[in-house]
């Protein structure tokens, strides 16, 4: 069905077909084919496909690894309203991958994504507040953002929120609450949450 939709010019169908090849869902896994469909959909104006094509370049999946091209595609996706593209471009600025390193620019992008409820963006924005990178260090604000991410199902937020409770950073110290959050994160598939939960049992 997606093939038929793509062939008829439906860019969402091309994007979905690329995602199927990328994950090996319903078709044999094939990064090269995934890239073909992501590129076709991106060229046709599907910003989600531009983001995923950017990830292919960042990861070197189906194309030669190219941080500069990845960042260009993330920027295209972000400017087109795909908030995951904004979050990924923010990561590029933090690491100086394909763009000049800039914590300030990363914070702007994470904030833009978070304001549009892209929860991974909220998580990364919380991490910037926790570390004082691009913004004044503020544990209480970090906690708010981790809570927002966790409540929305972003398990990395639950893990980091648990760590804040364990350390008493921005919240009253509470090992029991930390353990609950680590378990939630672990059950949701975040391996760092599982590791932290194991460490909590040992201590």
What does this structure look like?
There is one protein chain. The chain is mainly α. It is built from twelve helices and no strands. α7 (103-115) runs antiparallel to α8 (119-131) and α9 (139-151) runs antiparallel to α10 (155-167). The chain is globular and about 55 Å long.
Briefly say what this structure is:
This protein has helices spanning 2-7, 11-23, 31-43, 47-59, 67-79, 83-95, 103-115, 119-131, 139-151, 155-167, 175-187, 191-202. By secondary structure, the protein is an all-alpha fold. The longest helix has 13 residues, at 11-23.
Helix percentage: over 70%
| Strand segment count | 0
C-alpha end-to-end distance = 53 Å
Poorly predicted tracts of residues? none
Order of helices and strands: HHHHHHHHHHHH
Question: Biggest β-sheet: count, sense, barrel?
Answer: none
Radius of gyration: 19 Å
In quaternary terms, these chains amount to: single chain
| Mean pLDDT figure | 97
What's the number of helices?
12
Strand content: under 5%
Outline type: globular
Structural class from helices and strands?
Answer: mainly alpha
Give the topology, please.
Layout: H1 2-7, H2 11-23, H3 31-43, H4 47-59, H5 67-79, H6 83-95, H7 103-115, H8 119-131, H9 139-151, H10 155-167, H11 175-187, H12 191-202
Helix pairs in contact: 2-3, 3-4, 4-5, 5-6, 6-7, 7-8, 8-9, 9-10, 10-11, 11-12
Name the descriptors.
203 residues, mainly alpha, 12 helices
